Amino acid sequence: MNDLLHNFFDWQLIGDVLPDLLTYGLRNTLILSVLSALLGSVIGMVLAIMSLSSRPWLRAPARVYTDIFRGMPAALTILMIGEGVFSAQISWLASPYPVAILALSLMSGAYIGEIFRSGIQSVEKGQGEACRALGMTHGQAMRLVVVPQGVRRVLPAMVNQFIAIIKDSSLVYFLGLITSQRELFRIGQDDSVATGNLSPLLATGLCYLLLTVPLTHLVNYIDRRLRDGSRRPAATPEEPSLVDPKEVLV
Known about the structure:
The protein is mainly α. The chain is built from 11 helices and no strands. It has a single domain, classed as MetI-like fold (Orthogonal Bundle), CATH 1.10.3720. The chain starts with a helix and ends with a helix.
């Protein structure tokens, strides 16, 4: 029992690794996650629109892309993209960071595309019909009415996907990172290997919880607000007040 506690709860080692985790480790993880989420959202929206198109030559590539990047393990995808980019010797992607952001964005784009697609399809068809009755084109109706409503409905799922991106960012160590580029997991792993103790990895897990637990509560809050808003009864018009006929007579 003492060995187990020492292997996981060596407070001296935890205190030694925390400064690195909370400075450049946390910063690098957030950079990877936020940039990947933004680029993945753009990719996802394009995929969602393509998959909802009436043209088969647009739907088919979106479906193939989604099936591939959702079906492959994240570690394998990152390794294959990294090896492909490094083999091609693309100068502006020479650093592991751009490659990692590209890989995470391509993977998250497949999931976000399905999230956007389900949100857009959940909007009542009458919304689009009303837009066409007002003289809007299909593109205007989608851009101004349907897509904004669909995105609003999938906000909880989008935050969940961002949590998944944060956790997947721990896999970029496969690409090889220098000391200043290390993210949370790589710092904890390196210190754990150097000391032969798992306490640095426990500290790393606590840092991930510091990021993901508030986001989880944010998901619950957004979901609760959306459900409460959908259940709120529509305001009924006020009944006109009755006027005494005697007051009308002069």
